[in-house]
Amino acid sequence: CIALELTSISKPYLLFIDEPTTGLDTHAAQVVIQCLKQLSRNHDISVIVSIHQPNNDLFHMIDTIYVLAKGGHCLYDGVPHQLRQHLIDCDITVGENEVPIEVLIKLSFNGREDRDVKRLCAKNKELTSMSGLSDETRIYVKSGGFKTCFIQQDVCQHLLRGLTVRQALVYASRLKNSRISAHLDHQMIASELMSSLMISDTADNRVETCSGGEHKRIVIACELTAHIKPNMLCIDEPTSGLDSSAALVVINCLKVLSRRHRMTIIASIHQPNNDLFNMFDNIYVLAKRGVCLYAGPPLPLRHHLHDNDIVLTQNDVPIEVVLTIASGDKRMTDFEKLMSKQNSNESDDKLIEGNMRLVYGKQNPTKRFSFRDVYCLLMRSMRYAYISQWKTLALQIIMLIYTGMMLRIILGTEIIVPDGCMTIEFGSGCDQ
Q1: Do the Cβ atoms of 38 and 15 come closer than 8 Å?
Q2: Are residues 83 and 181 in the same domain?
Q3: pLDDT band at 360 (very low <50, low <70, confident <90, very high)
């Protein structure tokens, strides 16, 4: 059943499975969970499963657990191996021979008024409030126009197969500048962006034949064809799936665009190498639950670690050490040092300095209806159908002609000639 759901070329981002281990023995249940973990890693899918009575081995195979009690109250939200310590922090005794998840499941059957359940709910609420944006969170930006742009990790869905790079940029420029298109040279806009992003040599190549790094730069160029450039460009993992050389080219192009158009670019990168890391102006390292471990320029990071009594050898790369601390639980002491140091450095006064204003509500990115946009989209679709789907269209036309000819031969012309015969009585024909 899981395989049937994943046969689509466009895989789902979220997969819900209700009790995948019910009725299975221990070995079969572990095989199912292991397969789900492998699918999650290979296809970047979030898999959410509901399990009523997991054994200890099965419990530790899951990345994150969310334990619900009666009434939908959350008793624990986190990684499995920290559950025992979580229960101890809540003054709940767990013996050496007791399994923490079984203890927690027994408590979940109790009502909200149970003393242990109250402590667990309060503790989980306290931990949850430390992650993400709280009700007191405020976002400040510089005064003036505020226009954002977001580019997803999977850029293939932004590109239309069959078009050349130049055609894709020209159509993007016509759509984004439809209200002022009479005053703009779309070919010139496309040429300047291709030159800035170093994709001029692929101008006449079809987009599906370009490499992964070129795909990312083409999508960035399409978003920047607007005459009024965005103030903030957010890019999700611009270097994922690229080799070191292509990743450096992409980041260098982003720096050039940032300087030329006075644009703020925010990029999320999971595993930057040292050269890539030092190309950024500022970095913001996040750990689990959204905790910031470092915010500032790349170069002072080594000195920052030394100030927090974190020993680095000459062969250690500072960013790799910080990412190890951020992603693991083996160096909790170093984690707490960095978190406390960063919290002591942050100040709301620094954010408000320099004529900053508070942003309320959500930006409205919608665009008004325009017949010029409809015409541009229609011409692009016709070109796409002519270039990429002509074989399918030709086959459909041939099948229609063949079907008509076969009907003509089998049925003859008499099928369309009315004979005027009407059956008046039961069993009588036209000769009666």
Answers
A1: no
A2: no
A3: very low
Length reported for the chain: 432
The residue segments making up the domain with residue 278 are 140-358
- If asked whether residues 189 and 218 sit together in one domain, one would say yes
Query: What are residue 49's DSSP bridge partners?
Result: 17
427 assigned to some structural domain? no
Domain count, the chain: 2
Q: Which residues contact 17 (CB under 8 A, 6 or more apart)?
A: 2, 36, 47, 48, 49, 50
Position with higher pLDDT, 391 vs 346: 391
Is residue 179, in this structure, part of any structural domain at all?
A: yes
Q: How many CA atoms are closer than 13 Å to the CA of 192, on its beta-carbon side?
A: 15
Last residue of a domain, one of 358, 387, 410: 358
Q: Model confidence at 296, in pLDDT bands (50, 70, 90)? A: confident
Give the three-class secondary structure for 87. helix
SS3 (DSSP) at 225: coil
Q: Token pair for residue 387?
A: 């270039």
For residue 149, the cross-strand partners are 233
- If one counts every other C-beta atom within 10 angstroms of the C-beta of residue 159, the result is 18
- Cα separation, 26 vs 359, in Å, equals 53
Alpha-carbon distance of 124 to 74, in angstroms, equals 7
Distances (CA, A) of 345 to 296, 338, 341, 353: 11, 11, 6, 15
The pairing of strands 148-151 and 65-68 is: unpaired
Residue 46 DSSP SS3? strand
Question: Quick check: 285 pLDDT over 90?
Answer: no
- CA atoms of 72 and 67, how far apart (whole Å): 9
Q: Indicate whether 293 pLDDT > 60.
A: yes
The verdict on residue 64 lying in a domain is yes
Residue 61 sits in the same domain as residue 164: no
